[in-house]
Amino acid sequence: MNRWALLEHKIFINNYQEIHYDFLVQYGEECLTWKFFQLPKKKGTSVEIINQHNHRLIWLFEKEAELSKDRGHVKRIDYGSYVNQGKELNNEEFSLVLDGQLMMGLFQKIGNMCKLT
């Protein structure tokens, strides 16, 4: 099964808090991973998506965790399975059908932008 997860990642550094979202897509024995600062909304405008290093598969299943080395707190806020609408899944361009609660529908990524329809 092709799985994906959306994690809310809170980072606390010297009275500064950053919140972003990590979007993980199962790809073999690891997860392709991107970061959003705002979630794409169904039928909304495109939002920026930033490529991150691949994550371990365990993050598809973790509901909530404190990260080592004071890297913050992660909470899974959506997840599900996906159907790839193209031939390949790569970091530059793809279309996936997602079945989540927050992210449901056709998710399209082109370059550093994505949208949900």
Can you tell me about this structure?
The mean pLDDT is 92. Strands 1, 2, 3, 4, 5, 6, 7, 8, 9 and 10 form a 10-stranded antiparallel β-sheet that branches. By secondary structure, the chain is an all-beta fold. The chain has one domain (3-116). It is globular. The relative contact order is 0.26. It contains no helices and 10 strands.
Observed structural traits:
mainly beta, 10 strands, ten-stranded antiparallel sheet, single chain
Question: In summary, what is this structure?
Answer:
The protein has 117 residues and is mostly beta strands. It has one domain.
The shape, in one word, is globular
In terms of DSSP E residues, the strand content is over 45%
Sheet bearing the most strands, described? Answer: 10 strands, antiparallel
Number of domains: 1
Number of strand elements = 10
Rg measurement, Å: 14 Å
SSE pattern, N- to C-terminal:
EEEEEEEEEE
Count every helix, treating DSSP H or I runs of 4 or more residues as helices.
0
Look at the structure and give the mean pLDDT: 92
Which structural class best describes the helix and strand composition? mainly beta
Distance between the termini: 23 Å
Q: Low-confidence stretches at least 5 residues in length (pLDDT < 50)?
A: none
What portion of residues is helical? under 10%
